[in-house]
Amino acid sequence: MNPALQDDLLDDFSLEMTGKDVPGLEAARDSIPPGTRINITFLAGEDTATRLTAARAVKRLGFVPVPHISARRLPSRPALEEFLAGLAADGTAENVFVVGGDPARPEGPYEDALAVLRTGLLRQHGVRHVGITGYPEGHPGIAERTLWSALTEKAAAIGAERFGGDVITQFGFDVDPVLAWLEALRTRGVHLPVRIGVPGPAGVRRLLGYATRFGVGTSASVARKYGFSLTNLMGTTGPDRFLRTLAERYDPARHGTVKVHFYTFGGLRATAEWITGFRHAATAGTRA
Fold first, then answer.
1. What is the annotated signal peptide range for this record (predicted)?
2. How far apart are alpha carbons 114 and 250 in whole angstroms?
């Protein structure tokens, strides 16, 4: 493994939080590098005020807020305008992440993220950088062909609007499909930077639950690839093996610009401290 390349992958990592995680961010602030990009999810049950308050807190604490916009959760165009106007008024609208969202049926006029991108409202409200989703291991409810078509169309829309942009992937446990997907992405002419989604340190039982929900592998395959034992479901595990393997096999010439995005599952401080420890261990290994 090249420790320097491993460290480069973790340079400028990003984190994810919910609107209700502001106290956790306050507690973790000294463990997170200033200027870190922090995505703020768009969950059901959280209102506009909660999301705007979270974005303001991220900015106040010296980080870069990246509010999510969930297309299928938007009840109307005025609701989208209200949210964007609130972000603009707070100075937190420059970076957003646009996702289709979970509802089986749209709650309003927007079928998918591309529909939001095509409204023209993002530019009008001061958005300059747009993140979009990628699914290296597929999506349990969307055909692979549809996923690729949507991704290439969204990338084209970002280019046409002259936004900066990146792709954040759904988290996975296996490096092989991630690297294959990156090569396929570049072959299709999409050269946006990619942030590979990985789970922060979390309980084994919880990780397996998410893996089942998102269709990224069986319990046995996840345990084998990720490096934990199914005999200790009460334990906690981090993405150590995944990141080391990614660093070993990552080739910038084939895979393009790649960084890491951590899904924290509410554990912002635990994730930030894990990252610091992991990087220190890599540096110590280099010196040895």
1. none
2. 30
